Amino acid sequence: MSITHTVNARVKAIVDDVKGLPDALKGVEVETLRTQAEDLARDVAKRGEAVVAAARNLTAGDVLRSASGLRDKAEGLAEDAQKKAADLVSEARATVGRVSGRQPVATPAPEPTDEPAPEASPVTKAAPTKAAPTSPPAPTSPPAEEAPGAGDA
Questions:
Q1: I want to staple 104 with a disulfide (CB 3.0 to 4.6 A). Which of 34, 72, 97, 149 is the partner?
Q2: What is the sign of the dihedral through the CA atoms of 34, 35, 36 and 39?
Q3: Which of 107, 56, 109 is nearest to 83 (CA)?
Q4: Domain containing 44: what range?
């Protein structure tokens, strides 16, 4: 199909859609749409007023209590995740031991503490040392012959 045929087919489809619009619009009642829009606008306005009222009554104490509650929930979730991770590790070790035929090595999981974890110190690399310059090997001379009579004494 050439480009001309493709363009003509698309234009014909658009013209047919435009001709069908009056039939589609006959079922739409403008008054019903207007009523629905007004109802939605009133609902949004009521919700907005409720948000503004809640914001006016909000105090720093409310925010602190909410933050404290969220922190407690987060700590509980973190503890649960640690327990689940420890269970999964022990299950994996048992599976490896069962598959390999060896007893799994049990390492106790670290107990969770209330203290924050120590900050990791940055890893530093040792400074490269300069290698001593290598000198070429000293030339070796053939052993000197003894002078006559030096060994006769």
A1: 97
A2: positive
A3: 109
A4: 3-58
